[in-house]
Structure formats: structure tokens, C-alpha cells
Amino acid sequence: MPTTKTERLEIRLSDDVVRVRQLTRSLAVEVGLSLVDQTKIVTASSELARNTLDYGGGGQVTVEIVEQGGRRGLRLTFDDKGPGIADVEQALKDGFTSGKGMGLGLGGAKRLSNEFSIESKLGEGTKVSIARWK
What we know:
Elements: E1 3-11, H1 14-31, H2 35-54, E2 59-68, E3 71-80, H3 88-91, H4 105-111, E4 115-121, E5 125-133
Antiparallel strand pairs: 1-2, 2-3, 3-5, 4-5
Helix pairs in contact: 1-2, 2-4
């Protein structure tokens, strides 16, 4: 799948979550996503950036404008080297939280995306990828 633009941001501080939201919004506009789709991908990016910071101890996001089959989209891949997720299926359920959150982050991000994948290994970290297509 061809990538036409790639940007990476470190996620180390709360301010970085804001920067992830801003970059996501900017590239969603560049891709031509509708306002509703922009809002969905920005909301999902915010949830995942916050999880990367709070549960993964920080990490990075790679944001890509991608093309496939004549359509354009935005893919975000969050990567951390944190403790990992013991039970990914459980973590995707609404209401599940390993901290003090509301438990809507991973499941909510999945619902807000056209594509969602997660890989996590205990003691090694977590990688979450989402995409929204025009």
C-alpha cells in the first residue's frame, strides 16, 4: 500500500497528546476526510496517544497518508515498550480498565476506525494501528 506522506511524533508528555491530535486533524483535512470522519480519527488518536503515555510509559506514533485501490486514507500506528496487555480481548471490552479511566479507550478507538489491529506482548510493549478511509 503506497504511502504518500509519513510523520512521526514522540509521546512522552501530556502536551504530546495534543500534538498528536493536531497532526491527525491536519493530515485528515489534507486527505479530504469529511468533518465527521476527521472527528472520529482525531478522537481515536487522542485515546490511543493517552493510552501510550499512561499505560505504555510513552512511545511514538507514525501517521501516514496512504493510498489503496484509488482511495486515500490516514493510518496511525502507536508503539510503546511498556508492560504490554495481558488479555487483549478483555481490554477491548467497554468498561475494562487497568487504571483509573472509564474503559472506553481501545474499544472506542476500534469503533471509530475503519481498520484496527493490536499486537501486545507482556514485558515487551504494545502496537496499535488504526486507519480511516475517505
